[in-house]
Design a protein that fits this description.
It is built from 11 helices and 13 strands. Helix content is 32%, strand content 22%. The protein folds into 2 domains: 6-178, Thiolase/Chalcone synthase (Peroxisomal Thiolase, Chain A, domain 1, 3-Layer(aba) Sandwich); 182-335, 3-Layer(aba) Sandwich (Peroxisomal Thiolase, Chain A, domain 1), CATH 3.40.47.10. It has helices at residues 23-27, 34-41, 55-70, 94-101, 118-131, 157-160, 212-215, 228-249, 267-277, 288-291, 298-308; strands at 6-15, 20-22, 45-47, 79-83, 109-112, 138-144, 166-175, 181-189, 197-198, 225-226, 259-262, 317-324, 328-335. It is α/β, with parallel strands linked by helices. The structure holds oxa(dethia)-CoA (UT7). The site of oxa(dethia)-CoA (UT7) has 20 residues, from helix 2, helix 6 and helix 8.
């Protein structure tokens, strides 16, 4: 039997496209207001790609930074994963495209399709591979290009104002000290709520997979559809539940936490969750104001920014938590 070990995040990176789209710019496209967007979501601006850019393109600089910070060469990776709900193309995977852009080959590469929980689903998978000895170094990247898939008219405003493009990445490796690194991960899914937040088209149930009827008229099935309030209510229940689950699994309490990094879906969700947990504001990291919801990229972008800001330091106890389409939700407790 090999010795028990943990996995650890060795390096982080993130990248957002240059183009900043303010709330004021959104008001020129649809009937909305800076005030509504700030009050209901906390968002002030987001980044959109300019042209011809896929999530694997955004993931590349994030991954290169994470590799550099980890001191790991791309050729040393044993596994590459990329989480996205907006893959570059239908197939092959965006992970395979990222592998090509990194100039390496041979090691497995796979996409994870778990929306806002995608980063934590990858983290759990990477952790299991490393703990079992199946991999030494694993790259996980969350990357989204939402802007090409949003209805940027008044019909789609409820969804369109909340999403942004971006990428974040982490390189994981073995940690011999089992009191450090990824302490535990907790993954959940409830597919019965699929229709509450979904994109239906293209779909393989229909031949061809996209028809003119699917695309025509307002409310085209090409755009995401979301029951915002319904998703909100579930989110504010599931976040605390899965955070408590992670703490209890490690014999910890909310008071032990140095930082909570929730998936950035809505500032009000983060604030309500923090309030419910009685976590002071300085123990919760939020950056949705500048990026909107970048889905699979939101946690690694936030985690990297928190580290750069000195809010995640050696010894910090950090909880990562996510909730999103599926519904899926997840958490991880990390001793930095
Ligand atoms: O990460 C994926 C998971 N997604 C989420 O967690 C999203 C969760 N849901 C939310 O964040 C919120 O539900 C939204 C931000 C999407 C919407 O906020 P809300 O406070 O739930 O607003 P609402 O949907 O109840 O709409 C209130 C009003 C409506 O008008 P009426 O019916 O009261 O006249 C909407 O038509 O606000 C209107 N509205 C807007 N007005 C200006 C909806 N979107 C907009 C908009 N600008 N962009």
């Amino acid at each position: 039997m090999s010795e028990a070990m943990n996995s650890r995040i060795l390096g982080l990176g993130h990248y957002v496209p240059e183009r900043v789209v303010t709330n004021a710019e959104m008001t020129r496209l649809m009937d909305t207001s800076d005030e509504w967007i700030r009050q209901r979501t906390g968002i002030e601006e987001r980044h959109f790609i300019s042209a011809d850019t896929g999530p694997s393109d955004l993931a590349l600089p994030a991954a290169e930074d994470a590799l550099r910070a980890a001191g790991v060469k791309a050729s040393e990776l044993d596994l590459i994963m990329l989480a996205t709900l907006s893959p570059d193309i239908d197939f092959p995977s965006s992970a395979a495209l990222l592998q090509r852009r990194l100039g390496v080959s041979g090691m497995p590469a796979m996409d994870v399709r778990n929306q806002c929980s995608g980063f934590l689903y990858m983290l759990a998978t990477a952790d299991a591979f490393i703990r079992s000895g199946g991999a030494r170094y694993v790259l996980i990247a969350g990357a989204e290009v939402h802007s090409t898939g949003l209805d940027l008219t008044t019909v789609g405003r409820e969804v369109a104002v909340i999403f942004g493009d971006g990428a974040g990445a982490a390189v994981l490796g073995p940690e011999p000290d089992t009191r450090r690194g990824i302490l535990s991960t907790h993954l959940h899914s409830e597919g019965k709520y699929a229709e509450k937040l979904m994109v239906e088209v293209p779909n393989s149930r229909s031949r061809p997979r996209v028809t003119p009827e699917m695309l025509s008229g307002p409310g085209s099935r090409l755009w995401p559809r979301m029951e915002g309030r319904y998703v909100f209510k579930h989110a504010v229940t599931r976040f605390p539940e899965v955070i408590h689950e992670a703490l209890a699994a490690n014999g910890c309490t909310v008071g032990d936490l140095d930082l909570l990094i929730p998936h950035q879906a809505n500032l009000r969700i983060s604030q309500l969750v923090a309030m419910g947990l009685e976590l002071p504001e300085e123990k919760v990291f939020n950056n949705i104001q500048r990026y909107g919801n970048t889905t699979a990229a939101s946690i690694p972008i936030a985690l990297h920014e928190a580290q750069l800001a000195g809010r995640v330091r050696p010894g910090s106890l950090v909880c990562l938590a996510a909730f999103g389409a599926g519904f899926t939700w997840a958490s991880a407790l990390v001793r930095w």
